[in-house]
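INFO batch 0412 | record 1 of 1 | parsing
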Amino acid sequence: MTDIDQLIERRDHALAQFATIGDMRPGTLQVTYSKCGKPNCRCACDEAARHGPHYMVSRSLEGRMKHTRLRPEEVGAAQEQLDEYERFQAISTEFIRASEEVTEARRLALRNGDPVKKKR
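INFO prediction complete | emitting tokens
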């Protein structure tokens, strides 16, 4: 197996991984605690007694921040979707790197006069 064949195999492996991607969403999960502003509330006197936790997913959309509030029972699924998006990004990066290496190896092989078979 030539170097180009190995690179193509690496690229094809990354391509096959795209089929395993499930539900995903970009962004970060944020957990916040807040003060309500009522003067007699427990949160007015004690920083440790603030209300919460409140959950939200934040992401940039068309240059602006978009926030989606989550209920506590939605946090687990949202975290799985965020993790899946990170996995998608890693697979994409690997696919691009392997594709670049394939094209560079083919370019160098052509420059050296070696016959290069093209495989998608």
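INFO post-check: The beta strands are 28-34, 51-61, 64-70.
INFO record closed
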